[in-house]
Amino acid sequence: MGTARCVAVFLVLFIFTQSRAHGQSLGPEPVGRRPQAVETEKALQKTVTRFLLFPAERSPGCEIGWHRPGSLQECGFNSSRPLVLIIHGWSVDGVLESWVHQLVAALRTQPVNVGLADWLPLAHNHYAISVRSARLVGQEVAAVLRWLEESEDFSRSNVHLVGYSLGAHVSGFAGSSIGGKHKIGRITGLDAASPLFEGTSPSERLSPEDAVFVDAIHTFTREHMGLSVGIKQPIAHYDFYPNGGTFQPGCHFLDLYKHFAQHGLNAIPQTIKCAHERSVHLFIDSLLHEDMRSTGYQCSNMGSFSQGLCLNCKKGRCNSLGYHARQELRGKSKSLYLVTRAQAPFRVYHYQFKIQFTNQIEKPIEPIFTMSLVGTKEEMQQVPVTLGERITSNKTYSFLVTLGPDIGELVLIKLKWEHSAMWTNVWNTMQAIIPWGGESRSSSLVLKTIRAKAGETQQRMTFCLENEDDLLHPAQEKMFVRCEVNSKALKRKVR
Ligand SMILES: *[C@@H]1O[C@H](CO)[C@@H](O)[C@H](O)[C@H]1NC(C)=O
Ligand SMILES: *[C@@H]1O[C@H](CO)[C@@H](O)[C@H](O)[C@H]1NC(C)=O
What we know:
One of its GO terms (biological process) is lipid catabolic process. It comes from Heterocephalus glaber. Keywords: Calcium, Glycoprotein, HDL, Heparin-binding, Hydrolase, Lipid degradation, Lipid metabolism, Metal-binding, Secreted, Signal. With 495 residues, the chain is of the alpha/beta class. The protein has helices at 2-21, 34-44, 71-74, 98-107, 120-123, 127-152, 166-177, 256-263, 267-288, 302-306, 421-433, 487-494; strands at residues 50-53, 62-64, 83-87, 113-118, 159-164, 184-190, 211-217, 238-242, 295-298, 318-320, 334-338, 349-359, 369-375, 379-385, 396-403, 410-417, 445-454, 459-465, 471-472, 477-482. It contains twelve helices and 20 strands. It has an eleven-stranded mixed β-sheet with strand order 2-1-4-3-5-6-7-8-11-9-10, with helices on both faces. Strands 12, 13, 14, 15, 16, 17, 18, 19 and 20 form a nine-stranded antiparallel β-sheet that branches. A hairpin with a 3-residue loop joins strand 13 (369-375) and strand 14 (379-385). Helix 4 runs parallel beside helix 9 and helix 6 crosses helix 7 (166-177). The longest helix has 26 residues, at 127-152. Mean pLDDT is 84; it is low at 1-10, 15-38 and 434-443. The protein binds 2-acetamido-2-deoxy-beta-D-glucopyranose (2 copies). Residues 358, 393-394 line the site of one 2-acetamido-2-deoxy-beta-D-glucopyranose.
């Protein structure tokens, strides 16, 4: 964790020092000058941004624009299909990052026109200057969409902007500057940039106002000295926070060794970008593994999510992450949480377990459990369980367990209280001091039922001990089978 934090700090400071070198006063341009700037660009008949379409397999990109008559036909634009326009972010080296090509390829699996707004000349600059250019690029995107509307009768409602990092805010500026009665169909913000955007008003960044439907994936919001790379605050109708949004599995500094083997010296930027760019790869994954969609669940924070308290899909409280997100606007904006694997396919299955323990030992117990989960399709052995707190009284504990494979419907649970050195000592000491006659009720944890909820199927289940003995001893495994004993009454009691 510590080393991973160093990486984050390094990147944030890198961006920050660049911003500072050019003065913090270089914020986005004032709002009032927008329409004029667009008119100027149109008069020049040329934009700084190049708009490319990717019609055929492995095509390098075909430039379109009002300064190139006939370019739409030439570039294979099909006006009866939607347009997905990728917008890259701030650029360190002035070349397109490899994810752009991966995203183009993934989008080609869909019946859509795939485009790219290439604004590298402006993106390859000091960060604060690129931020200042973002509004202009957004206006150019809006101008191209208006041109498509005028020349092809192509509705902006068929447009989906996918912006990464600073490109997410470019998308927002496109949406807010397009003018007219109607909005752009959809904007997806992939780990939208935080520096100079966090905490600003909705008109200064990507916001739900900018399109009919706005979704965002936050993957690198870990803060240092009040700064982070990805924006923390909600900016969309549905804001997804995979693994809490702060950092991503598989991106730790220790993984640098693996990256070294793969990328040589390039491993350093690869590692730095890992969590930030994960937002893109989660989106790509949603296109390439359509049948393995990741579900996010509305929750107030990752702490509650980790207790399994948020696996609820009622009233639009859950949604699919990525391209196939349900474009539904019900009530307020929602922040959704989920766990992912460290690599594609990223999807996991989320389960909430609730166990009511009775601890009759005066000393609080900090147990380590493992659960073996037997499903109709597969069995997962020895899944570690941490309650995150000590067992002190007759309380119900709720926790989250995530599984990579699909085990089918859960039918059996084997719970084992793992031996820990500390506990063994307590156990032995107690056996020495207190003269028990065989098994005594005052000697261990008692539990009768385990209740479970599967997030992905929304199924609730109750499991009961197979035999009568409800005492749980260290190192002992207990078997729980499906039973549906007055779970309604239990639920009422617990909630
Ligand atoms: C344009 O898209 C429509 C709808 O997907 C499709 O039916 C049609 O064949 C496409 N036209 C060309 C020329 O590819
Ligand atoms: C837990 O429950 C048992 C049996 O119902 C009871 O004897 C015991 O006093 C309770 N302990 C606490 C801390 O409430």
